[in-house]
Amino acid sequence: MARDDVADDGPPAKKARPTSVEDVVVERAGQGAAAMKSGRGALTLEEIAGDKLTQLAIKHWSEAARQQEQPPAFSPQLVEQIYRQELGGGQTRPPLLRRIMLLEVSQYLEGYLWPNFDPVTSSDGHVMSMLIMVNEKFRETVPPWTAFHTHKDVFPAFFQRVLALRTPAARAQLAQHESTAYLLFMINAFQSLEDEMVRAQVLKLVSLPLWHGLSHGRLQLELAAQPALAKRWKALLKKEAKAAAAAAAKKQQQQPAGDQDAAAATAQPKELPRAEAAFLPGMLQEFLHCLRTADAKLTGQSPPAAAVTAAAAADPAADADDEDDEDAAADGSAAAADAAANGHQQPATAAGGQQQRQQRRKPGRVGKRLLVHLERFVEFLIDLLSQLPTRRFVHAVVEDQQLLVKVGVLWWQQTCMF
Description:
about 0% strand; mainly alpha; 22 helices
């Protein structure tokens, strides 16, 4: 006779996702100090009800607030404040998972970020906040793109803003955990090819214009082996030339009459920026820079200059090897601030701080966040090379970049050393 308290062999029932703050219940009453410090413990109902994010949600983007006769006006400053204080924007340390979970429960993305997104005026912090919230939906196995289907016509412009974060100026402002969040969003996007809205945008990153990143010799070999693609390539070049000429003419018309003659004498059609074509080669180069940084830390050498971002150069804590070093650097900064407030002088200069960081660096240690970023990129590359819709043009670019050869050289150096 079967016992009533024994579960069947079938798969367990999927747990229903909470749709409001009131639906969240605590599963375990007690949480250890480590869980509370790491921000990964379960959220209690009292914590949610008394949290400042809950109060902001009730006031600005809750269902009741949106149904008022005069809904609260959108505040870009509030988005920036939440991004900086709760989502780790501009900080060396990643955000607490509990804070992201709380924002997801309050429907921050579908209730505030996406309805008020403007492709022209929205800040990079607004865009990054949306990426982080989409990643959280994937982590919770919640349909991530449902909110975006309410304004499908805006999604292409949103994706262009996402690609704009790959420009050198914007990328230099991202911390390590922000770059990893960006990479995770791309992984999730390429794993959502079944969604027509998403598929139309991400496949542009791995289509024929990607071969603009090939060397001249490899491009000629590929086109000679595939005559049909050679015809498409010529048509693509003509189309891009016409678009560049039209853009130059439009820009000339917008100039004052006195400047048009001088501009016309020197104006020449220029190639349009190929954000889609430069995306994957740029990601490959960033991966190699991160890999060289990890190799330098294993050998106790200084990281390559190309791998040092502006944020790391501005904040000593960003150059720490792991979370413990970052906490120590933060404590040192706080101590320095207290000493300055009390009138004490700090003899250490920028050069002295750099020497101290060089002495503190120990061979054989690589930061956990850097390792996570490298692992995520390997996952991203595996996805691109294993899916039929994405691998056709990506394979040639990866081979032309000699990615496996460069990674193999670093592995060989480590093998010979140890």
